[in-house]
Amino acid sequence: MKSSKVVATLIALVVFLLIFVPIVGISSDAGMKTPGIFGLIAFAALFYALKAIWKKDDKGNEN
Asked: What is the pTM for the complete model shown?
């Protein structure tokens, strides 16, 4: 169970990097020093994906 969470975490990080690197490249080509709102959206998506992956299961609360 834990190994599948580690694999899912690594996949989420790779997907984040594949999305974030072009955002930073495009924003630097445009003369901006920060990735802006799209970078924040990508980071928030990574944060909530990791939160969902590592959330504890409620096995005692079955109705």
From this structure: 0.76
